[in-house]
Design brief:
2 domains, alpha+beta, single chain, four-stranded antiparallel β-sheet
């Protein structure tokens, strides 16, 4: 786990690199490794300032391919600054078809931290580059490969349900929660199971299984935990307190030079 001093030094170096790349190339590409649960992703910084284009974000590939996708995205914007969200771009990257979606500003805070630092605000447009599965289905298509859904969250929808799992996923809770007790502890087990607990009972007989959507509808603040890693636990004293985690996350970040 990185110390606060190491985080501060990392951020200072990243910010220095961002400013250098934007000055030299017009934009910067920030790359973030996945953590086993949340997917890898990358986004641009500076396209809006330098060219008037939306910033771009993409998920789910290795870092090298993400870098290439965003670089090609900038080239496409050079030709078409406002890509049509209703059509595909089959010649985008060696015949690889993609679509562009407008990112909902409510999602910016979870992904565009360095961009907000660069612009000193959240006031910039952003598009998500979305890729299909091997059968050419997109994540919003019924036949899209279900094993790939968690690797590509869609940032233009579902602000009321940010979790990557299906809404009908079975999760553990307690009889007391279903009777109205507040959820004070959330565990995301290493096997992928979720537990939403009130911390008033340890009796196995009180355990219940409900769909994930039902739990989120009972307490919308649980959406804040949609990126809780495997093996992590979140906890709060009362329903009005902020969530705390049992350990601080390591930010597996990499910042690379644009081309």
């Amino acid at each position: 786990m990185a110390s606060p001093e190491e985080h501060k030094a990392h951020n200072a170096e990243a910010e220095k690199r961002i400013l250098s790349d934007v000055k030299e190339h017009g934009f910067h590409i920030a790359l973030f490794n996945g953590d086993g649960y949340s997917p890898s992703f990358a986004y641009t910084i500076g396209l809006y300032k330098t060219f008037g284009y939306p910033e771009l974000i993409c998920f789910g590939f290795g870092l090298d391919l993400l870098h290439s996708v965003l670089s090609e995205g900038k080239k496409l914007l050079d030709k078409q600054p406002k890509p049509d969200p209703n059509v595909g771009y089959p010649d985008f990257l060696e015949g690889f078809d993609v679509r562009f979606l407008t990112v909902d500003e409510a999602r910016y805070q979870y992904y565009f931290g360095y961009a907000a630092w660069f612009y000193k605000s959240w006031d910039f447009p952003a598009l998500q580059i979305v890729w299909p599965d091997k059968q050419a289905f997109y994540p919003w298509d019924e036949d899209f490969n279900p094993d790939w859904k968690v690797g590509q969250p869609l940032l233009d929808r579902d602000n009321d349900f940010k979790f990557r799992e299906d809404r009908n996923l079975g999760v553990y809770t307690t009889r007391q929660v279903l009777e109205g007790f507040p959820i004070l502890r959330v565990a995301h087990n290493s096997d992928g199971d979720w537990q939403f607990l009130c911390d008033t009972t340890t009796d196995v007989a009180d355990l219940k299984v409900v769909c994930l959507e039902h739990i989120i509808k009972r307490d919308a603040s649980l959406n804040e935990l949609f990126q809780l890693k495997y093996g992590w636990t979140a906890w709060r004293e009362t329903i009005d307190d902020d969530w705390q985690t049992w350990e601080d996350p390591d930010e597996d970040e990499e910042v690379e030079e644009t081309e």
